[in-house]
Amino acid sequence: MDKNRNKREENYFVPKPLRKCLLILGLFFLGMEITSQILLQNDLPASLLFWVFLILISVMLFRLLGLNKSFRRTHRIQNWKPKQKLTLYLYIFLNVLLIASMLNFSYQMVVFFFLVLFLFRRSIGQRAKKFEMMFPSFLRNLRKKSFHVDFVSMEDIDNMSGTEFEKFLFKLFDGLGYYVELTPHTDYGVDLIIIKNKIKTGIQAKCYGEGRTVGVAAVNEVCGGGGHYKVQKKAVITNRYFSKKAKISARSNNVAMIDREGLQDLIRKYNNK
Hints:
By secondary structure, this protein is an alpha/beta fold. It has 2 domains: 2-129, no CATH class; 146-272, Trna Endonuclease, Chain: A, domain 1, CATH 3.40.1350. The protein is 66% helix and 11% strand. Strands 1-2-3-5-7 form a 5-stranded mixed β-sheet, sandwiched between helices. Residues 142-147 have low confidence and may be disordered. Keywords: Endonuclease, Hydrolase, Membrane, Nuclease, Transmembrane, Transmembrane helix. This is Restriction endonuclease.
């Protein structure tokens, strides 16, 4: 027992995040040293060897920063969370510094990097403005209630378009701790992909008007899209209810069905977490 306690105390002495930061800094300064050696080399084989080491350091930094996991979940950077995007910026910045140190104009390269980053951030802001123009009333309601999903009534959801409903589900599942990705308009029957505990689920979203039910077609669509996106689970979510045939088809194809009551349960979970 004492040995185990001593091991735990040793591990707590240097927290894991600090160890990772120290390792990243160590690799970066090692890379800087390698770049200086590349500048001093006149022998081509030796220079190539140092270049190989430099590439390996870049790959190790990529993995240490967790970017390999982010790209594995989705290659579309626009759907990444802010923390993941900032991590990518940091990785690019470190590589820019390594390259700049070899070209002897590091100051100019750093200024160029921040200029490109500024322009990139502006483009994100412009996209956000376009989204706000598309769904002004929906966003206004969310802002008034501090972006709390519970304050979006079922009546508000009933008045959403299909695209607004998908965006709403994106926020809902993101708040529930899932990694969420919106698929392109040619979605092959899957509107959203959510990932949690390494389980990938494809979701077909159906927002219908009063009196309509979701039929077998939605089940068939998500089954087809599930194969395309290689998901482990499939689900159909609606603000209404499912037809009897749709329920039978869903059970046969192992598709989860979330109707109006199920959607309200998800909203309650969002606010009780």
